[in-house]
């Protein structure tokens, strides 16, 4: 009897996780279907306005920005992205504060991000920078305070018609104002008062070396090392990085960004 019970029990142990896995798969599939249905509803629901004409979205963006965020002016349409810009000053340096908006008519969505750049070469970059000087953040991530978003929460959807699209544009400019402006203000204060950044500025202000050679040496090492910051062995970079690491009171997040921040500082040095 004991052996029989054991014999019957073992297959159950083996099958049970499979049943659970199948249940979870079914549940996940249902959730995906529900999610796609919600997105379809958002993008196919009709209103009484006309379809968007070619180039009309630019006018809607500029008009809405002038009403909600008048300090930001339309800068350019480049790399499939509409960019709005506001300029501010800190430590005799210009901060380029940027709203990036990618619009697709086919997929009927907007992807939005916000950036604060000290280095103008990053103005049209779509990379989410990991240093302290040129942060770039997805707007939806800021809004939800999470990087793990499902597709419905990751984009702003429209239906390709003027009325609904305008409402969507008003929504994300409102989010830029509510969640993006504090992000920019926080970065401005960081540039003024952060001890690591201050140490770095002092370093490059005192640095006297050939800018072109410095750029060439670091760029070559990066390219040879697969663009990994850890591949940079150039003495000035190493010296700056070590000095930044010695700054007291830094957080874990700041320590993780020191490699990139040292590189950003030297980029500023050779571009100004």
Could you characterize the architecture of this molecule?
The chain is α+β, with helices and mostly antiparallel strands. It folds into 3 domains: 1-44; 56-189; 194-271, no CATH class. Helix content is 57%, strand content 15%. The protein contains 10 helices and 6 strands. It has helices at residues 2-44, 56-68, 139-144, 151-154, 162-193, 195-206, 211-224, 235-245, 252-256, 258-271; strands at 73-78, 81-90, 93-104, 109-117, 136-138, 156-157. Strands 1, 2, 3, 4, 5 and 6 form a 6-stranded antiparallel sheet that branches. Helix 6 (195-206) runs parallel beside helix 10. The chain is elongated and about 65 Å long. Mean pLDDT is 87; it is low at 1-21.
Briefly say what this structure is:
With 272 residues, the chain is α+β, with helices and mostly antiparallel strands. It is 57% helix and 15% strand.
């Amino acid at each position: 009897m004991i052996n029989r019970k054991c014999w019957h029990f073992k297959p159950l142990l083996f099958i049970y996780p499979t049943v659970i896995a199948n249940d979870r798969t079914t549940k996940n599939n249902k959730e995906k279907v529900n999610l796609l249905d919600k997105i379809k509803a958002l993008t196919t629901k009709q209103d009484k306005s006309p379809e968007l004409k070619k180039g009309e979205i630019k006018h809607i963006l500029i008009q809405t920005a002038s009403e909600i965020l008048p300090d930001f002016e339309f800068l350019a349409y480049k790399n499939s992205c509409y960019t709005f810009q506001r300029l501010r000053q800190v430590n005799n340096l210009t901060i380029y504060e940027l709203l990036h908006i990618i619009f697709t008519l086919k997929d009927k969505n907007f992807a939005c991000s916000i950036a604060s750049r000290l280095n103008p070469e990053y103005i049209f970059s779509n990379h989410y920078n990991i240093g302290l000087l040129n942060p770039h953040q997805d707007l939806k991530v800021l809004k939800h305070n999470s990087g793990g978003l499902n597709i419905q929460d990751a984009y702003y959807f429209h239906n390709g018609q003027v009325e609904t699209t305008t409402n969507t544009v008003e929504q994300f400019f409102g989010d830029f104002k509510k969640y993006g402006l504090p992000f920019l203000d926080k970065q401005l204060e960081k540039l003024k008062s952060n001890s690591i950044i201050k140490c770095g500025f002092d370093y490059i202000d005192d640095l006297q070396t050939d800018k072109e050679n410095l750029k060439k040496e670091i760029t070559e090492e990066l390219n040879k090392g697969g663009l990994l910051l850890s591949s940079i062995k150039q003495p000035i970079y190493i010296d700056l990085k070590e000095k930044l690491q010695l700054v007291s009171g830094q957080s874990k997040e700041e320590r993780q960004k020191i490699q990139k921040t040292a590189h950003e500082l030297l980029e500023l040095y050779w571009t100004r």
